[in-house]
Design brief:
263 residues; mainly alpha; Nod_factor_ABC_transporter; transmembrane helix; ABC2_TM
């Protein structure tokens, strides 16, 4: 390089220019990375896709639990959709985020140009993409088993979004306050307890009346009952179930925002 050429190498000649990328591009890139990591994780796929699908097929084909009048799949399909949302937004996200926090991944991402709320937005986008794939698969399987859904798709979408917000807040709260091993154990335990007592497979009418009053206030019960009212009975808007989900969403996300520790 000649002296003249060297003298012309001043600021503004680097390509691409150094500095942070635009915020929407950073969020998209992080969301794509989070989605790939989620879909490549065999344990996560077992929890979020395979288990709900097997439960839907097994309990629809074999008369194990009395689901009341009508086809078993008509009762089970909405509950399994709710279970899929919980498995991704709560259980899977809590475990993955808890171990990212333990290994220092969140600490390093927190000092990158991507703001912390941008990282949480990217994680939420990854959860939503995974849920779309789950719901498409489970719906196809349920339709093949003879499911006949009804109701307004917009109401179903609203229920799913509120359910995702509620479970995401609770999952992030758990991941941001407990140790990774404790999060792993607690998230799986809660998953099993809500699978049995959340109206997913066993109707809440089978439980004692005193227990029913409490179980109806759980987010999984509100989501499964709301989806069942709309998809099974053609209800317009299940306001009580929406109210329960909205309450859990506000409490969970608010508590996660306040108490989440990045290290």
């Amino acid at each position: 390089m000649t002296a003249t050429e060297a003298g012309t190498t001043t600021t503004g000649t680097f390509a691409p220019r150094p500095g942070a990328a635009p915020l929407p591009r950073m969020i998209r890139a992080q969301a794509a990375l989070e989605t790939r990591m989620l879909l490549r994780n065999g344990e996560q796929l077992l929890l979020t896709v395979i288990i709900p699908t097997l439960l839907l097929v097994l309990f629809s084909a074999v008369d194990i639990v009395d689901t009341g009048a009508g086809k078993a799949v008509d009762f089970l399909a909405p509950g399994i959709l709710a279970l899929a949302v919980m498995s991704t937004a709560f259980t899977g996200q809590a475990i993955a985020t808890g171990f990212e926090r333990r290994y220092g991944v969140l600490k390093r991402l927190a000092v990158s140009p991507l703001p912390r709320w941008g990282l949480m937005t990217a994680k939420t986008c990854a959860v939503l993409v995974t849920e779309v794939l789950q719901i498409a698969l489970l719906t196809a399987v349920a339709l093949a088993l003879g499911w006949s859904p009804h109701g307004n798709p917009l109401t179903v979408l609203l229920l799913l979004l509120l359910g995702t917000a509620a479970f995401s807040g609770l999952g992030l709260l758990m991941a941001g306050t407990l140790k990774a091993e404790a999060t792993l154990a607690a998230a799986n335990l809660v998953f099993l307890l809500l699978l049995v007592g959340g109206g997913v497979i066993v109707p809440l009418a089978k439980f004692p009346e005193a227990a029913r009053a409490v179980l109806h206030l759980l987010p999984i019960s509100a989501l499964s009952d709301g989806l069942r009212e709309v998809l099974g009975h053609g209800a317009s808007v299940p306001w009580s179930d929406l109210g329960v989900l909205a309450g859990w969403a506000v409490l969970g996300l608010g508590a996660a925002a306040k108490f989440f520790r990045w290290e």
